[in-house]
Amino acid sequence: MVQLPADFVAETRRIMGDERYNRFVGAFDEEAPTSIRVNPRIAIDHGPLTILALQASRAGADHSDSQVPWCSEGYYLNDRPQFTFDPLLHAGCYYVQEASSMFVTHILRNVQCSAPALLACKARMVNGQCSMVNVQCSMFNGQCSMVNGQCSMVNVQCALDLCAAPGGKSTALRSVLPDDCVLISNEPMGNRAQILLENVTKWGGPNHIVTNNYPRDFRKAKLKFDLILCDVPCSGEGMFRKDPNAISEWSAQNVEKCWQLQREIVADAWECLNPGGLLIYSTCTYNTKENEENIRWILDTYDAQVLDIPVDPSWNITGSLLQGFNEPVYRFIPGITRGEGLFVCALRKAGSLEPKPFNAKKLALKVLDAEFEKSDVCVDVDYATALKYLRGEALVLPADTPRGIVTITYQGQPLGPAKNIGNRANNLYPKAWRIKSTHLPSEPPEVLKKCKNLKM
Question: Active site residue: 93, 234, 284, 451, which one?
Fold first, then answer.
């Protein structure tokens, strides 16, 4: 049985109540679910990933893996494959992401518009649980566009993910936002910003910029955004099941430091949010100081409105756990919801959103660039050669391969560049991205084949 800090146990039992707390603690005896989010662009930008062949290979097979209900691209897996050794992961065909965090895509696809007459859905809170009535689709500023059959925000010209590393929510945003929307993914910590850059580069997508700045730098630069995601640093209680280090690092004192830092970040973000813009606040923790009490502070301090987001009762998402605070917020609790710990709330800034073109060429920020050499000459390689490439080894390419920069691909999906000099090809894959392990599996993990009802 896992040993949790006594202060955490007392406070969490108090806010959850005995029944919820017991279900939460019981989840520590269960295996944490493994989930991935498939890149909807893999069959658009780089040619089909033999999706029909993948579907055919699954025909007649018995798969109990299932789709994440709040994210059409998300899938639960029965086991945890060796993702590192799947070239398609490195090609950005999918992202290994905890299922609860995918809820940000559901928010953007269902954010309520300001005109009630145009709204076809309504969410309400019943006994701390979210329920749904007549959900069809909802719109932003009275408009609706379709992305893979889902409603998506439109009329949004610029978005900011303020604390974005390692990039799960940022790549999710990029998949949902319109292509002409400029998305800036920022990470204040330099080493984490490099990880963010790698994941964003591999994921692909237009108008996606990675920066390495503090939240206050955006305020000082007087930048304005239609959408800001504040996935703020927190005490990490929601990671206890997956990361034992999060338990040892937790303290009541750190909770106090976190909620104060979170308010500073929100204050900087609010100054950068356009009137009528959307702010998504999220943490991976359970206590009310970092969650509901911060939302209440936002409402008391700024002219903001909390938005209802339609959810299905079967998802078992929990609402507010702060007595006397009944605004719609969304809590994911292990043992109750199939995912790890998450708190999220969507707020709209007062005013009318009038998006203006965003000039991304004159950013007074530290912008990161992967400096990835590109070539239209592609050389598709087998699994063993793909792993050699991802390790940074030199390759021997077919004799008819043109000399110069070529793009190494696996199953038609780009991995990165190499320089063919004839007798060998020098590896240009970034050193920081290379697989460090010397293990060489004989067969690929074939993760995408584990996804039941993959929709592309």
Answer: 284
